[in-house]
Amino acid sequence: MNALPRKISLAEWDARHACLVKEGPAEPSYGGPLSRHVSCRQDLRLEHLRFDNSPAALRLWNLLLTEEDRLGAHRAQGRKLVGAMKDLGTVPVMAYSLPNLIAFYPDGAWWTPCLMELSDGLFNVASRLGVEESFCPVRAMLGAFVTQAHFPLPDMLVCSVGAVCDDFSAIAQRLAALGFVIHWWEMPRRRRPDPGEEAVPLPGGLLAPAAQVEFVRTELERIRRLLAELAGQPLDESALAAGIQAANRLRRQLAELRRLVFSAEHCPLPALEVLIAEMLAIHYCSDREETSAVLGELLAEVQQRIADRHGVLDRDAVRVFWVNPVADMRAMDLLEECGGRLCGTDFMFTHALVEIPEDAPPLAALARVALADPMVGPTQDRAEQVLRAIEEVKAEALVISRIPGASHCAREGVIIRQRVQARLAIPALELEVPPLCDAMIPTLRSRLQALVETAMAQRQR
Fold first, then answer.
1. Where are the domains of the chain?
2. What's 434's DSSP letter?
């Protein structure tokens, strides 16, 4: 059923879904109307979001919202579940290199209070355990482990520690104190090589001392042995190389999707769907092959819309680069309601979007990508990466969203904004988005509108 691209409500999607079922091809096993996630899972936030109206977008949302079912099915089929925490894109590549391991990120529970509009009670559980609202919303993960209501408990827990978010480290340590066995691996703070010191290029244009790459490689070697023991079979170089190649095929799909969406004259895909598509690269939503199929369908939809010169937003929407993920997804809709469009992102896991080197030993290649994490090095490095990305996509404005309670947000927004504005004459805005931003929508709307109006005024100069 053909329809011009546009954003629609949950109720409109139900009506459209009924027509698609009558006229279209069979849905995947996890398909169905989006509203069932409200009635069956209490994902109440869906009632306040606006969605892309393509079948590809429906498949994307259904994949995202059925991960718990998928994890349960994997366990019933005898696969082992690996809970990978904080590294965002490294350990899952290793785990998926073995056929009977499935990796997922318990960290993803940080969005559950938003999706369920606080009806989940996870923040209350975390507060009773001493992790109250002064912490990042990822504290919801603690509540999810204790209640065991939002994902199956993993057969093995792996967590990076060291140069990572202080909030997350504290929460993971609280989990360990509650009796959850965690296998830690250390991520050193990335530093710039000293003069004359052997250096290794990292994805994204950074450099790291060869000694740091070797250190991370040895840490990942420990995790490799643990994964092999859990799986009951070797995780050798050839299996890791095949896993890296599979990950890279998916990352190339996503890179092309982002390139087309960010560069198209008419915005071919809304910000919310872009955000979710990027998230899939972290751990494939517990199904690598299905994630590739979903991205392929999204890519085909975007290519067709560009060929037809169709978009979902006004043609003159202001091109906005967005830094940091939002705790409430409603903010992505709000940007577009105010006349902006997403044309570039740094949602804190850019290292999970770049290709993994295939010309190096597999663990060394993964170590390079892990060290390319923008959050484990100087904020100035991340600011420079953001600046280059803004110049590449020709963004007209910058939004930096602070995450409530997150320790790393204290100064990084200021540093990034100052670095960008020192070189580029574009308006920039820092704002904080809580897990539910309803009470703040008038303020957020006025600030985003002012940003968009300033950028449009600059077009006239």
1. 67-235
2. -
Amino acid at 230: L
Helices 271-283 & 237-263 angle (0-180, nearest 10): 170
CB 185 within 8 A of CB 158: yes
Helix (H, G, I), strand (E, B) or coil at 98: coil
Task: Please tell me whether the overall predicted TM-score, pTM, comes out greater than 0.90 for this model.
Answer: yes
> Predicted confidence band at 187 (pLDDT cuts at 50, 70, 90)?
very high
Residue type, 171: I
CB 175 within 8 A of CB 198: no
Exposure class string for 379-400: b at 16+ Cβ within 10 A, else e = bebbbbbbbebbeebebbbbbb
SS3 131: coil
Contact 164, 84 (CB under 8 A): no
* Burial of residue 232, with CB atoms counted within 10 A of its CB: 0-12 exposed, 13-18 middle, 19 or more buried: exposed
Is 454:427 a contact under the CB 8 Å cutoff? yes
Query: What's the pLDDT at 248?
Result: 98
Cα 370 to Cα 145, 204, 210, distances in angstroms: 26, 11, 13
Quickly state the pLDDT bin for 272 (edges 50, 70, 90). very high
Pair type for strands 397-402 and 318-323: parallel
CATH class of 67-235: alpha beta
Measure the CA–CA gap between 444 and 316, rounded to whole angstroms: 21
Distance CA 326, CA 311 (A): 24
Q: Per-residue pLDDT tens for 326-365?
A: 999 999 999 999 999 999 999 999 999 999 999 999 999 9
pLDDT tens, position by position, 84-123:
999 999 999 999 999 999 999 999 999 999 999 999 999 9
Query: From its phi and psi, is residue 285 left (phi > 0), alpha (psi between -120 and 50) or beta?
Result: left
Give the pairing of strands 7-8 and 51-52: antiparallel
Q: Write the CA distances from 247 to 105, 190, 366, integer angstroms.
A: 16, 24, 11
- Nearest-CA neighbor of 386 among 426, 336, 357? 426
d(CA 73, CA 395): 43
What are the helix (H) ranges across 284-411?
288-308, 330-337, 362-371, 379-393
